[in-house]
Amino acid sequence: MNHDDQGEDGHDLQLPIEFEAFFELYHQRYLDYARAQLSLCEPEQIQDLVEEVLAHLGADWERVLQRPNPTNYAWGALRFAVEHERRQRGEVLRLVEKAVFMAAASRATRPVFEALEDGLGVYDAISRLPERQYDALLLKQFLGYTTAQTADVMGISPPTVRALIHQARTRLRKHTLLAASESDEE
């Protein structure tokens, strides 16, 4: 995205310095998130999607700043755009894909179908996580962000990130244990 885009009248549009700082801080992080979510898109398409979200935020920057939590609002705008694109393309959640693979790979000594069945249980559990728990888990565990970086990107506090990760892990353990006990009963 060119920071000095042209307005509808063809004149250069100067973006507020605060937005330029926001862009510099979050552009790469937003690209990381979008790339982690959209496996079927070309890199240029992902870049365009992120920059379109940022352009909309920049064009309406004064109103964005009036929100109680501008960073969280911007995160929501990105998340909505990525989720919309992912659903249009019929993609599965990338974190889920990786979890299924890792679960199957970690059980490589067991028969393949049994390992894949366990992986699909993890897939089901991750796909049922609430959005904020999923995002915190994706940013921290899959993309390797620190708790502080995850909090910053999502526009929430570090203790909230820790709570979301804890809740996600608890849900995943509970769900996978329930799935295991249900398969034992069969």
TrEMBL record:
Keywords: DNA-binding, Plasmid, Sigma factor, Transcription, Transcription regulation. Residues 122-172 form the RNA polymerase sigma factor 70 region 4 type domain. The keyword Transcription regulation applies. The keyword DNA-binding applies. PANTHER family: RNA POLYMERASE ECF-TYPE SIGMA FACTO (PTHR43133), RNA POLYMERASE SIGMA FACTOR HI_1459-RELATED (PTHR43133:SF8). Belongs to the sigma-70 factor family. ECF subfamily. NCBIfam families: sigma70-ECF. This is Sigma-70 family RNA polymerase sigma factor.
